[in-house]
Amino acid sequence: MKAAVISFPGSNCDYDMYYALKNWQITPTIVPASVTDLTAYDVIFLPGGFSYGDYLRTGAIAQFSPIMQALQTANAAGKLIIGICNGFQILTEAGLLPGTLQTNQNPGFICTTTALHIVNSTSAFSSAYQKTDINLPIAHGEGNYYIDDEQLSQLKANNQIIFTYNDNPNGSVANIAGVTNVAGNVFGMMPHPERAVETILNNTDGQAFFTSIINFLNQKTEAVKA
Amino acid sequence: MTPTYHEPTPAEIKTAKLYLPWGLTTQEYDLITTKLKRLPNYTETGLFAAMWSEHCSYKKSKPVLRRFWSQNERVLQGPGEGAGILDIGDNQAVVFKAESHNHPSAVEPYEGAATGVGGILRDIFSMGAQPIALLDSLRFGEINDAHTKYLINEIVAGIAGYGNAIGIPTVGGDTAFDDTYAGNPLVNVMAVGLLDQAAMKVGQAKGADNAIIYVGAKTGRDGIHGATFASAAFSDEAHVDRSAVQVGDPFTEKLVMDATIEIATKYPELVIGIQDMGAAGLVSSSAEMAAKAKMGVNLNLDLVPQRETNMTPYELMLSESQERMLLVIKKGAEQKIIAVFARYGLDAVVIGRVTADERYRLTFQAKTVADLDVQFLTHAPNYQLPSVKPTRLIQANPHQYQPVITDFKTTLLSLLAQPTIASKASLYQHFDSMVRTNTVVGPGSDAAVLRIRDTKKALAMTTDVNGRYLYLDPFNGAQMAVAEAARNIIAAGAEPIGITDCLNFGNPDKPEVYYELTQAGAGITAFAKAINTPVISGNVSLYNEYNDEAIYPTPMIGMVGLHTDVAHITTQSFKNAGDLIYLVGQTTDAFNGSEIQKLETGQITGALFGFDAQQEVTNQQGVLAAIRGGVVNSAHDLAEGGLAVALAEATFGTALGFTVNFNGTDAQLFSETQGRFIISVDPANQATFESYFSADLTQIGTVTATRQLVFNTKLSTTEIDQKTAYQTWKDALKWRLK
């Protein structure tokens, strides 16, 4: 199984994602944002960081990178596309996910570990969790998810909300921490599962996130074979 | 050598003594004219003023720095380069240095702090190393006015803004508050890097005809030395405004960092030298690289990438624009290196060549604008300054202050709420401490710990100093700073291996301040030798004064420790109910300079309590051996607030309490005697644990499942609700900053 980790200039969690995936026997490749073809990969990750410095608005410049066309193509083909933190911000800027991410309600970057509730436990990103509440690190200054009431009811109706915060750290609407698109193949979240996959780092609640994705891809492969 | 643009002539410089506002003395100027056998022109005078400043030349602090002990079996690179380097085995090395950004942060706190982070990171990756961690040692006034709150918030935001964006975790440090820093806050930043020894680089311009390549951001008029004084005479208003503040750009620095590390690891044979353009920018980096290699340089200033128009040679050489590096590249390999930087979208331009003649030659618009002896330019005359023991030290009352404890519980809770002791989470939560996924122990424990991927090793790191101790006794106070740093490293389970420092002092031209500086330097070396931790890098920040009043002598000690096995990583929190609590070390009446003296009297007075170096070493070695023996569940260093505060801290973040029987007075629970730890041990390991100590070990109690802090002394019994203590400690700083 092959995973692309997209490295925008200014991405700084690209290698964290790379190592987290390597632990899962996936073959990850760091792919620069200048690349225009992603057909070789089964799953695509957009990691955290400050793409192009994010001086204007998070993800605002990244959405114009050459790689974005390849991401649209991958989405049309139904591939899994996963944005973590800055990756989530880029996916909303590019219109691949609904909603938008604003400055935290109490302005300022926050780095801590926060409790999450798994709202949808059947998604490609959550099916392997054996529990309903987990702890994951957050590290962001613009993680305040906004969506209007009408779109929020659609998110709920379609079970697009995967994770919510138990103790909302940034002011997100409906405590939303992670959402998918309608089709369920594009996912974004502010918390960092790639920072929580090793016992030595005191948190392994991110493991089931990656197991879920791998299980989903394996099932997909088997379905194709059948 | 007459420039075509409007600048004062050499004769005008001499007559009007234009060099004085730039910091050159008349004696120094006369020495220059005698040696040159002519008058220096405007550009050359500026070069000397910058290179002979204390910041670049250390002309006043050199006698102190020279006495630092800085060599042992691990040292691959001692002081004098971008950063010091220690061998940690397996062809790996740890690289670290600390730097102060006190003055810029006092004037423009956000950018001052941010560019401090950027500068220290360049020092690390200029050695070919990958930066892995940042620590901050901050000193502020007591939080009772809006300006101090503003400084705290902006400085923290500046550190966060730069460190988070560039993606290097900020994992620790120390923050303290005292009125002495109200008008002159201290912002010291330490960076740690990891190096594959094959990629090790130094800042040297070896090999005639090798290329000098400028990389990174373009040069503007920001941070030009003395610009405010000079501008009125020959420049327009706009230049003054832009000169005032340097602005950090972490995005560009990340690109410069990644590209620099890439060339150092990919082309080690082609990259001869790398140096950061820090203080005094282009002149300092190029002149130092040439001087260290005993070579010269020819630079063509027309080729320097510029972001403003009509810049003069003086401005180009003295600009302190950020995110710039200077490389010396083997002749013929220029395009290979330039191509790497081009891939990152960065400027990389050959601006000159190394020469064999030890001359520092600059050309601009086809004219030579400087032609100087490199060694002369980079070797300011040294000063031996007068030193006088301050009256307050001669007249200090030798008796220890005796605290009056009428209500033990209230006293403990008040101490836990003191900003220096209270939780700093409301500050450090703004720093990304986890990026790069190596942080095993983050902010809030005695020392931060990062594992080294694909090895069993880890690195512990900390910053420490208590300026109040040095104010009462600069020699012993400095020894205590090193000792506390070492206790923090050892409590984390690592062996201390080396030191970097920032020597923050007042005006050294005052004999009393110079006395403090020399005594502190001697104290650092004395205890550094005792524990085999050489001083491998550092910086000096003098003239930290407000209204002619010097800050407390504050030599920040940054220390790094090595875990040979990640299994030894230990934290300060109690782990299990039923574990035995031990106190390592003797407790005496050590109250002058303590938190309790400050709390009860509002002052710091008297002679500092003593320091038993031998006892300190013995206790530290016992604790490290016991941790390596696998019989320690938690270890915590005793510092400000003494035993009572340390015990309470060991329960914070847990649902545990303790019962302690202390064979001393109530007041002694707050004594700050050095050389002490509290350790918790599984009762099954009691005998093994005790075998690591021959004396100075007392079992003082047990960890309990009930969340009560129970103190029994010779005089009283006190029970304090653990949740109340925790909330008081956790929220005190947050509320004060509101």
From TrEMBL, chain A:
Pathway: Purine metabolism; IMP biosynthesis via de novo pathway; 5-amino-1-(5-phospho-D-ribosyl)imidazole from N(2)-formyl-N(1)-(5-phospho-D-ribosyl)glycinamide: step 1/2. PROSITE patterns: GATASE_TYPE_1. Gene3D superfamilies: 3.40.50.880. Keywords: ATP-binding, Cytoplasm, Glutamine amidotransferase, Hydrolase, Ligase, Nucleotide-binding, Purine biosynthesis. Its EC number is 6.3.5.3, 3.5.1.2. It comes from the Bacteria. The active site is at C85 (nucleophile), H192, E194. It is found in: Cytoplasm. Part of the FGAM synthase complex composed of 1 PurL, 1 PurQ and 2 PurS subunits. Coiled coil: none annotated. This is Phosphoribosylformylglycinamidine synthase subunit PurQ.
From TrEMBL, chain B:
Pathway: Purine metabolism; IMP biosynthesis via de novo pathway; 5-amino-1-(5-phospho-D-ribosyl)imidazole from N(2)-formyl-N(1)-(5-phospho-D-ribosyl)glycinamide: step 1/2. Keywords: ATP-binding, Cytoplasm, Ligase, Magnesium, Metal-binding, Nucleotide-binding, Purine biosynthesis. Substrate binds at S100, H101, N102, H103, R122, Q246, E320, S321, Q322, S541. It comes from the Bacteria. The active site is at H55, H101 (proton acceptor). It comes from Periweissella beninensis. GO terms for molecular function: phosphoribosylformylglycinamidine synthase activity. The keyword Cell cycle does not apply. It is an enzyme of class 6 (ligase). Belongs to the FGAMS family. ATP binds at Y58, K97, D501, G538. Mg(2+) 1 binds at E99, N539. This is Phosphoribosylformylglycinamidine synthase subunit PurL. Gene3D superfamilies: PurM-like C-terminal domain (3.90.650.10), PurM-like, N-terminal domain (3.30.1330.10). Part of the phosphoribosylformylglycinamidine synthase complex involved in the purines biosynthetic pathway. Catalyzes the ATP-dependent conversion of formylglycinamide ribonucleotide (FGAR) and glutamine to yield formylglycinamidine ribonucleotide (FGAM) and glutamate. The FGAM synthase complex is composed of three subunits. PurQ produces an ammonia molecule by converting glutamine to glutamate. PurL transfers the ammonia molecule to FGAR to form FGAM in an ATP-dependent manner. Mg(2+) 2 binds at D123, D276. Residues 208-363, 577-710 form the PurM-like C-terminal domain. Residues 80-194, 444-562 form the PurM-like N-terminal domain. Pfam families: AIRS, AIRS_C, FGAR-AT_linker. Its main location: cytoplasm. Residues 13-59 form the Phosphoribosylformylglycinamidine synthase linker domain. Its EC number is 6.3.5.3. Monomer. Part of the FGAM synthase complex composed of 1 PurL, 1 PurQ and 2 PurS subunits. InterPro entries: PRibForGlyAmidine_synth_PurL, PurL_linker, PurM-like_C_dom, PurM-like_C_sf, PurM-like_N, PurM-like_N_sf. It catalyses: N(2)-formyl-N(1)-(5-phospho-beta-D-ribosyl)glycinamide + L-glutamine + ATP + H2O = 2-formamido-N(1)-(5-O-phospho-beta-D-ribosyl)acetamidine + L-glutamate + ADP + phosphate + H(+). It is found in: Cytoplasm.
